[in-house]
Amino acid sequence: MRARWTSDPCYAFYGVDGSDCSFLIYLSEVEWFCPPLAWRNHSSPPTVHTHTRQTATTKRQVRHTHRTPPTVHTHTQSPNNYHQETGKRDTHILVHVGFLTEESGDVFSPKVLKGGPLGEMVQWADILTALHVLGHNLKISMSVKELQGFLGVPPGRGSCPLTGPLPFDLIYTDYHGMQQMKQHMGLSLKRHKCHIRVIDTFGTEPAYNHEDYATLHGYRTNWGYWNLNSRQYMTMFPHTPDNSFMGFVSEELNDTEKSSIMQNKVNNMAVVYGKEASMWKGKEGFLQILHRYMEVHGTVYYETQRPPEVPAYVKNHGLLPQHELQTLLRKAKLFIGFGFPYEGPAPLEAIANGCIYLQPKFHPPHSSLNHEFFRGKPTSREVSSQHPYAEQYIGRPHVMTVDYNNSQEFDSAIREIMSTKVEPYLPYEYTCEGMLERVHAYIQHQVGSPLLASQEGQSCVEACQRANLVCEPALFRFVNNKEALRGLEVQCEVVEAEVNHVFPAFSVLRRECGLQKDPLLYSCAGLSPKYRRLCPCRDYRRGQVALCRDCL
Fold first, then answer.
1. CA 178 to chain centre
2. Mean pLDDT by 10 residues, the chain (552 residues)
3. Angle at 148 between CA 143 and CA 150, to 5 degrees
4. What secondary structure does DSSP assign to 239-259, as a single string?
């Protein structure tokens, strides 16, 4: 302290003036490093300089940032009833959108009107809307200065902790926001980690989240390693139950609108999923097959000259406003993906407007091991198609996944699509009401489970899915014991508790059993060719996979 007290202005902010007396008071009452000083008055908090906290007219901000929430056509539960039924108080929530801050080098905003990715912005807008509609008290920050003001961070570079209680029950942020909070909250971040929810598009698996384990076993990436409970990461699609599925909202149609769409469908009209010209490179082969059967439409961005990558026979509309894109999708029979972007909102919006979504199958599946896009992301997930959720949870007739390199298979798929009649469809969990229901359940009480044994090389995600269940990481603590092994009639000569992201598990050949030593490594996603895993599974609500049947 004698050598470093002038290194950060936050020390002076807390009254440190270079004297040993001020050092002792600071270390005792601000950082809680030393025991209380007997001669100090402990009935009142330590004296600090007053500073102005920023305020926000939150509801006005929300109205300017969110998409217009679609009408809820089903009325089994009014959003306003959630609080009336539970009697719970409104929650004070800080939403810090780190990736849009100037300090993170915001790369999204300049591309919004030039065909850039909108998926993250769609999700953030819907999260803000859901929290607002549910009646919670919101503060929104999109700069580090606002973040510091809302949290009451002392001036400086983050060396000093916050004093007093955190002024928020929850903080929704992203990985950029986590880095900024680490820099400016200093020692306080660890103390307040349980309040944080990280909006994380592709997910973070436990092996990557556990900093020491990730470093030791080769799972360390540029992201992850925050040592959070894995359920604190909130994803766009339900990749793994290790994380929480947050989702977003697509527009839901009433019966009259659905009927009108089906009557006005143009059977030989296709719309291409690809707003950037670069996505069209190398696609001439299967586009020629498509063109033999259907009129091809595109929505590729250009400023003055039509992009040369887009074939001349394609009717390119340029970048369309949302309502004009909806009009186009309501006429089209087919919405066709090129393989990128991965797992965006657009295919669900197309299916909800009565399109059949055609997408490429990946051989081999894309992952961090073989594809640059996933390299460095904190997940070992293998992506079998452009949109695995659409393939797995929706499927035929609304979704067709084929090998685009097989011209005969592709040709056959196009002819099948032209002769297939489908109604507009939207999974309940992506409706307005579905998202409100899910967000409410997470805020209020997120936390009987069948126990299954996986096969060697099989994750608990797969093992539970095969039994029409989902893996529930919150229940691992109930199966991480010798009693669970005995219940499966497993013969164990050795039972060890280790730090291993596939434990609890057992090996039949070696008659070895392993229990999990570190709860942060409970993982539904983990797998090993050497072990069969103990898997806690639960049921789920149809169309709302994040919640069990009796969770509301």
1. 14
2. 86 90 89 82 48 36 41 42 51 94 82 74 95 95 92 78 82 95 84 91 95 94 90 95 95 94 95 94 95 97 91 95 94 97 96 98 94 93 96 96 97 97 96 95 69 94 92 92 86 90 93 94 95 94 87 72
3. 95
4. --TTSEE-----PPP-HHHHH
DSSP letter assigned to residue 316: E
Looking at the chain, how many residues does it have? 552
- H-type alpha helices, 188-339: 188-192, 206-209, 211-217, 255-263, 284-293, 322-331
Per-residue buried b or exposed e for 127-150, using 16+ beta carbons within 10 Å of the residue's own CB: bbbbbbbbebbbbbbbbbebbbbb
Where would I find the H helices in 69-143? 81-86, 119-133
Contact status, residue 436 vs residue 130, Cβ threshold 8 Å: yes
What are the boundaries of each domain within the chain?
Answer: 1-50, 58-200, 255-425, 447-538
State the first-to-last Cα distance of the chain, in angstroms, to the nearest integer: 52
Q: CB within 8 A of 304, min separation 6: which ones? A: none
Cβ(123)–Cβ(236) below 8 Å = yes
DSSP letter, residue 330: H
Q: Quick one: tokens of 319?
A: 């970048």
- 184 with 144: CB under 8 angstroms? yes
Query: In terms of CATH architecture, what is 255-425?
Result: 3-Layer(aba) Sandwich (3.40)
Cα–Cα dist 54/235, whole Å: 30
**Rounded distance, CA 435 to CA 429, Å?**
6
Measured N-to-C along each axis, helices 407-418 and 284-293 cross at an angle, to the nearest 10 degrees, of 30
Q: How far apart, in whole angstroms, are the C-alpha atoms of residue 95 and residue 246?
A: 14
